[in-house]
Amino acid sequence: MNVKRIFGSILTILGIVSLLYAAYMFMNTGGGVQDVKALSIYGILGLIFFIAGISLVRNTKDEA
Questions:
Q1: pLDDT of residue 47
Q2: Are 18 and 51 in contact (CB under 8 A)?
Q3: What is the C-alpha to C-alpha distance for residues 37 and 27, in angstroms, rounded to an integer?
């Protein structure tokens, strides 16, 4: 297996976990300034990791 595909898979998993945590925080927050900051940070980083991981997995060619 290619190293880029492994790294892409790890990034995708980290992105999914971060997006799920952001969704959990969204459901269980009071709406304070600190909550909004943390929610936006986890959401944006999760989205970036998820998109980057999917792109790496999709664009890497298998060479045997």
A1: 96
A2: no
A3: 15
Q: Which two tokens stand for residue 15?
A: 């992105």
9 alpha-carbon distance from chain centroid: 11
The sign of the CA dihedral 3, 5, 6, 12 is positive
Q: Report whether 11 contacts 47 (CB < 8 A).
A: no
**Tens digits of residue pLDDT in 11-60:** 999 999 999 999 998 898 877 778 888 899 999 999 999 999 999 989 88
Instruction: Give the whole-angstrom CA distance, residue 24 versus residue 19.
Output: 9
Taking the C-alpha atoms of residue 63 and residue 11, their distance in angstroms, rounded to an integer, is: 21
Please name the residues in contact with 21: beta carbons below 8 A apart, sequence gap of 6 or more.
42, 46
- pTM, whole model, 2 decimals? 0.84
